[in-house]
Amino acid sequence: MSPKFFILACCLLALAPAYGADELACGTSIERQLSADRLLPAAGDEKPGTIVLEAGRMEAQLGDNAAASMSGGVLLRADDKLAGAESARFDPEMKALFLEGGVTYEDPGTQILSDSAEFSYTSGRIRFEGAEFSLGSNAGRGASELLEISQDGTLQLGGVQYTTCPPGSEDWLLRGKSIKLDTKSGVGTAKGIKLQFMGVPILYAPYLSFPISDARKSGLLTPEVGSSARSGNEIRMPYYWNIAPNYDATFTPRLLTDRGLQLGAEFRYLKPRHNGELNADYLSNDSILDRSRHQVRFNHRTLFNNGWRNRIDLRRVSDSQYYEDLGGSLSISSITHLNSSIRFDYYGEHYSLFGQLQEYQTIDDAIAPVDEPYRRVPQLLARASWPVKKLRVGLDGEIVNFDRDVGVTGWRVNAAPSIELPITRPGWFVTPAVSLDYTRYQLSNVQAGASTEATRTVPISSLDTGFVLERNFGNANRVQTLEPRVLYVNIPFRDQDDLPVFDTITPDINLVQLYRKNRFLGIDRIGDTEQLSVGVTSRILDVGSGRELMSATIGQTRYFGDRNVTLPGDSISTRQRSDYIAQLTFLLWRNVNFDVGHQWGTGESGTTKSEARLQYRPAGNKILNLAYRFRRGSLEQGDLSWSWPVRTRWNFVGRYNFSFRDQEALEQFFGIEYESCCWGLRLVSRRHISTRDGTRDSSVGLQLVLKGMTSVGTAADKLLERGILGYSADLR
């Protein structure tokens, strides 16, 4: 056989690339496929690139006018590529190989079926006419009047239609005059594109550019539409700009029918040692309020060569109602302060350093200026700890300037040296410790006659000890632990009524606070106490997997005297015991998880705080969440959320968050999901409190998901993922 023939065969089997990357969700491959063992034996020890040819009948003419013809079934294989036809003909003048009759091509990611094919060894082009194709790995299939694969791997299709629906179903269909897929650049271009759903055109584009690989590509993103009672109907049309491999930007015009046109932009950058993003939104004229509105967010992270780190977080809005009107969620609209800070920190083996400039923008008009948080300009922190023989010597220090437009301001300097003697043995530990807390203030804007300087020195002693006991049970497949812990703290009384309160609060007691030495959070107050905190934890562990099947903790603090140090407006505490704190996490069955936290007092004080959550999840798409939250004097809420199949293709989703205290729903949404083999639909109706004064907003979201292609409509998937614990928007 002529060597030219084998060159042509190599063109056929070595050029075509594989396309697609998504998991196959349903059978969509073309009906006719080659089988590697239909005519050819399995690949043996051939060298890579070896061509194996099989034909029922072959005729060849050698010499200067070499030609060859094959019939009775032709099959070629090279590595993992296969090609076949009923007959083949080599034309020496055209320097091409022609395949005719049931032409089939296969590689790991592509299947092509056509009436005829032409393979030119001079240009390296492979040309199929009247082709059907299947991108097996991404579940896509289609047909093309003309399909060409060039030597550089470029795929050109003319008169093409494409879908991920199985054969015999064209629920959605993409049609185009021409499509070009450049595998080297990872870019696809299309002309005369029309997207149809259930035979109805829903999108048309004269020209479209899109990525065909994981590489980023500039172009229009899927538009989002929605509506709300506060702002009317809206549509977002994002445009993505791939500036460089480590730079990109997204521009998002957002049309709100009741308010106007909002322009949004996001810029991201990534360098070996720093990264960040800048976000800005601008509404030139809010038709409802008759003024411009905006927000700006900037985040930056740097890791220096010497181990130092830098973090910049800046956030500003034009007005206090910005998030209520334009935020879109209760969690965002309930924000009262926006933090802006510039930080530097360093963590070494025995010490750490931290410095920052920090301020807040208060966006809740109900907060008086005297209650607004202080600016820290600057704040410097240092923490050190060194082993000295069997001891551990530590030093915590802080220098900070608190500034505010109203009220007392000034500098605070704090130093707290400490010495510990940690004794650790298998199954138990004991740690006695002593420290001395020194604080000095230099104040401004004090009341007439008040001192501008103040100091405080408080010694602190403590003894922390605990045990870890274990036993096997359940045929040695389970391990149960018993972990008691006791903390003794002694802090003498020091009068601190003349000290300001810059950043100190009294936190709610919890399992973390139970073992803290200072009952205040912040160092403007060091609480006097002689107390004993006792707690015990028990766990049940699966030996094979290490999975924690159960964890239960209970603890309480006993006080041996009154606590006289208070914050302004608080009274002296005379209670001899704290509330009990209990927490239980339990895997009831394989598919049921139960968590509960409870705090209750002695005598007639009753329950102070309680939280409970039950999740039943027998399957990935079957989720039922039930939660309860109680804070005495402030809130009592129930929360029910679910995602549950009602039929084979239908899924019922929803959430109902109810306040028993206010006797009203805080947020509720109900929706239905439909999923076929190649597309999905989400319809969600939502009503929620959108402002701090209780104003409600209503919206309806509709999202159409075309598997393997895109989604059209409202981003309902984000709402469901946020509101339903465990929900995943990935369609199966």
Would you kindly provide a written description of the structure presented here, covering whatever features stand out?
This protein has 732 residues and is mainly beta. Among the domains are: 3-168, lipopolysaccharide transport protein A fold, CATH 2.60.450; 218-398; 579-732. 4% of the residues lie in helices and 60% in strands. It is built from four helices and 43 strands. A hairpin with a 2-residue loop joins strand 27 and strand 28. The two termini are 51 Å apart.
Shape: elongated
Unreliable runs, pLDDT <50, ≥5 residues? 1-25, 31-42
Radius of gyration: 35 Å
The residue-averaged pLDDT reads 84
Q: How many DSSP H or I helices?
A: 4
Distance between the termini: 51 Å
| Structure class | mainly beta
Largest sheet: 31 strands, antiparallel
Strand content: over 45%
Task: Tell me the number of strands.
Answer: 43
Helix content: under 10%
Structure summarized in a few sentences:
With about 725 residues, this protein is mainly beta.
